[in-house]
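Write out this protein's structure.
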Amino acid sequence: MIRKWLAVALFTCSFQALALQDTPELEASSSHYIKDDLFIFMHTGPGRNYRILGSIEAGTPITVVSTDSDAEFTQITDDDGREGWVESKFVSNTMSRAEKLPIISEQLTENQAELQASQSDNARLRQQLNDARQQISQLSTENEAQASEIVSLADKVESANKDELVMWFTRGGFVAGGGILLGVLLTYFPKRKRRSSEWM
C-alpha cells in the first residue's frame, strides 16, 4: 500500500520536481537506507538461516553497525531502535524516495508561492509600464500641440512685422511724394520782384 502511494505521489510530482533547478541539496537524516521498492527481513545473525526478527520497509533510514567477513550481510539499527542483520545488497547510501518526497513537496510549495509572488510583481510592473506609456503618449500629444501653437504664434509675429514694415514704407513714400510735389509747386509761384534802390 505504501509502495503504491509512493509511486503515485512520485509520478505526480516528478515533472515539477525536475523543474526545480535552483533547489538546494536535500539534507539526509541518515547515511544509509534500505533500497526503495521492496521490503526485506531482518535476521538475528549474518545469514538467512538465522531467526527472522521482522520485516523492514523500503526507504527506512538505518544505522550501519558492522558487516560480516564476506560482506554479504550488514548489521544495522533501524529507526525503531531494532538491531539485526540484513543482506548487504539491499543497503544503500542514497536518500530514499520516501524521505525525499515530503522535502521536495515542501520545496515545491515554496517555489509555487515565490512564482505567484513574482507573477503578482510582474502584473504590477506591467500596469506601471502601461500607465507610464499613457503618460508619455499624453505628454507627446501636449508637446505636439504646444509646438504647433509656437509655430502659429511665430507666423503671426512675422506677419505683424511685415505689415508694420509695409506701413512704414508706405508712410515714407507719402512723405517723400509730398515733398517732391511741394517742391514742384513752389517752382510755379511767381518770384517777388525786389524794389529798386531810390538813391541810385
